[in-house]
From TrEMBL:
Subcellular location: Membrane
Its membrane topology: Multi-pass membrane protein
Gene that this polypeptide is encoded by: Sypl2
Secretion signal span: none
Keyword flag Cell cycle: no
Primary localisation category: membrane
Protein's UniProt name: SYPL2 protein
Protein backbone atom coordinates (compact mmCIF):
# COMPACT_ATOMS: atom_id res chain seq x y z
CA UNK A 1 0.00 0.00 0.00
CA UNK A 2 2.50 2.56 -1.19
CA UNK A 3 -0.19 5.24 -1.51
CA UNK A 4 -0.24 5.47 2.30
CA UNK A 5 3.45 6.39 2.55
CA UNK A 6 4.26 10.10 2.48
CA UNK A 7 7.54 11.16 0.97
CA UNK A 8 9.01 14.52 2.01
CA UNK A 9 9.93 16.62 -1.01
CA UNK A 10 11.98 19.82 -0.71
CA UNK A 11 10.55 23.04 -2.04
CA UNK A 12 13.16 25.22 -3.70
CA UNK A 13 11.07 28.39 -3.76
CA UNK A 14 10.43 28.55 -0.01
CA UNK A 15 13.00 26.66 2.04
CA UNK A 16 10.90 26.62 5.21
CA UNK A 17 8.04 24.65 3.71
CA UNK A 18 8.37 21.09 2.40
CA UNK A 19 5.81 19.46 0.14
CA UNK A 20 4.57 15.91 0.46
CA UNK A 21 4.60 13.38 -2.35
CA UNK A 22 2.57 10.19 -2.03
CA UNK A 23 3.83 7.09 -3.76
CA UNK A 24 1.57 5.33 -6.25
CA UNK A 25 0.48 1.69 -6.08
CA UNK A 26 -1.08 -1.00 -3.96
CA UNK A 27 0.90 -4.21 -4.17
CA UNK A 28 -0.35 -5.73 -0.92
CA UNK A 29 -2.52 -8.49 -2.44
CA UNK A 30 0.36 -10.71 -3.67
CA UNK A 31 2.20 -10.33 -0.38
CA UNK A 32 -0.92 -11.13 1.64
CA UNK A 33 -1.63 -14.18 -0.54
CA UNK A 34 1.97 -15.39 -0.11
CA UNK A 35 1.90 -14.99 3.68
CA UNK A 36 -1.60 -16.46 4.07
CA UNK A 37 -0.67 -19.52 2.07
CA UNK A 38 2.49 -19.90 4.13
CA UNK A 39 0.49 -19.81 7.38
CA UNK A 40 -2.08 -22.32 6.08
CA UNK A 41 0.72 -24.60 4.86
CA UNK A 42 2.32 -24.50 8.30
CA UNK A 43 -0.98 -25.26 10.03
CA UNK A 44 -1.72 -28.13 7.65
CA UNK A 45 1.77 -29.55 8.18
CA UNK A 46 1.27 -29.50 11.95
CA UNK A 47 -2.15 -31.17 11.64
CA UNK A 48 -0.73 -33.82 9.30
CA UNK A 49 2.14 -34.44 11.70
CA UNK A 50 -0.31 -35.02 14.54
CA UNK A 51 -2.31 -37.35 12.30
CA UNK A 52 0.80 -39.31 11.29
CA UNK A 53 2.17 -39.66 14.81
CA UNK A 54 -0.90 -39.85 17.03
CA UNK A 55 -3.43 -41.55 14.77
CA UNK A 56 -1.10 -43.75 12.73
CA UNK A 57 -3.45 -46.76 12.81
CA UNK A 58 -6.35 -44.66 11.50
CA UNK A 59 -4.13 -43.36 8.69
CA UNK A 60 -2.96 -46.84 7.64
CA UNK A 61 -6.37 -48.56 7.88
CA UNK A 62 -8.36 -45.97 5.94
CA UNK A 63 -7.54 -45.98 2.21
CA UNK A 64 -9.17 -42.62 1.47
CA UNK A 65 -7.17 -40.67 4.04
CA UNK A 66 -3.74 -41.05 2.35
CA UNK A 67 -5.24 -40.15 -1.05
CA UNK A 68 -6.92 -37.08 0.44
CA UNK A 69 -3.64 -36.12 2.10
CA UNK A 70 -1.86 -36.48 -1.25
CA UNK A 71 -4.45 -34.32 -3.04
CA UNK A 72 -4.29 -31.57 -0.43
CA UNK A 73 -0.47 -31.61 -0.57
CA UNK A 74 -0.53 -31.31 -4.38
CA UNK A 75 -2.94 -28.38 -4.10
CA UNK A 76 -0.69 -26.65 -1.57
CA UNK A 77 2.34 -27.19 -3.81
CA UNK A 78 0.52 -25.69 -6.80
CA UNK A 79 -0.75 -22.70 -4.85
CA UNK A 80 2.72 -22.17 -3.35
CA UNK A 81 4.12 -21.92 -6.87
CA UNK A 82 1.38 -19.45 -7.83
CA UNK A 83 1.93 -17.42 -4.64
CA UNK A 84 5.69 -17.25 -5.20
CA UNK A 85 5.16 -16.05 -8.77
CA UNK A 86 2.61 -13.45 -7.62
CA UNK A 87 4.93 -12.20 -4.88
CA UNK A 88 7.81 -12.02 -7.38
CA UNK A 89 5.70 -9.87 -9.70
CA UNK A 90 4.51 -7.73 -6.78
CA UNK A 91 8.08 -7.21 -5.64
CA UNK A 92 9.22 -6.16 -9.10
CA UNK A 93 6.32 -3.68 -9.20
CA UNK A 94 7.32 -2.29 -5.80
CA UNK A 95 10.90 -1.91 -7.03
CA UNK A 96 9.72 -0.08 -10.13
CA UNK A 97 7.49 2.26 -8.11
CA UNK A 98 10.22 3.08 -5.59
CA UNK A 99 13.13 3.35 -8.02
CA UNK A 100 14.97 6.63 -7.31
CA UNK A 101 14.73 7.74 -10.93
CA UNK A 102 10.93 7.22 -10.86
CA UNK A 103 10.65 9.24 -7.64
CA UNK A 104 12.74 12.07 -9.06
CA UNK A 105 10.60 12.09 -12.21
CA UNK A 106 7.46 12.42 -10.05
CA UNK A 107 8.79 15.46 -8.17
CA UNK A 108 7.62 18.72 -9.67
CA UNK A 109 10.52 20.59 -8.07
CA UNK A 110 13.01 18.53 -10.12
CA UNK A 111 11.38 19.39 -13.44
CA UNK A 112 12.48 23.05 -13.48
CA UNK A 113 15.18 24.44 -15.74
CA UNK A 114 18.64 24.32 -14.24
CA UNK A 115 17.60 22.01 -11.40
CA UNK A 116 19.74 18.93 -10.77
CA UNK A 117 18.22 16.28 -8.51
CA UNK A 118 20.26 13.35 -7.24
CA UNK A 119 18.88 10.34 -5.38
CA UNK A 120 21.99 9.76 -3.33
CA UNK A 121 21.87 6.05 -2.53
CA UNK A 122 19.97 3.17 -4.06
CA UNK A 123 17.77 1.17 -1.66
CA UNK A 124 18.95 -2.33 -0.76
CA UNK A 125 16.50 -5.00 -1.93
CA UNK A 126 18.58 -8.09 -1.17
CA UNK A 127 16.38 -9.47 1.61
CA UNK A 128 13.24 -8.87 -0.45
CA UNK A 129 14.80 -10.79 -3.36
CA UNK A 130 15.63 -13.68 -1.04
CA UNK A 131 11.99 -13.84 0.10
CA UNK A 132 10.97 -14.66 -3.47
CA UNK A 133 13.60 -17.39 -3.83
CA UNK A 134 12.52 -19.13 -0.63
Amino acid sequence: RLYQIPFGMPNCEDESEARTLYLVGDFSAPAEFFVTLGVFSFLYSMAALVLYLRFHSLYTENTKLPFTDFCVTVCFAFFWLVAAAAWGKGLSDVKAATRPSALIAAMAVCQGDGVLCNAGTTPAMGLANISVVR
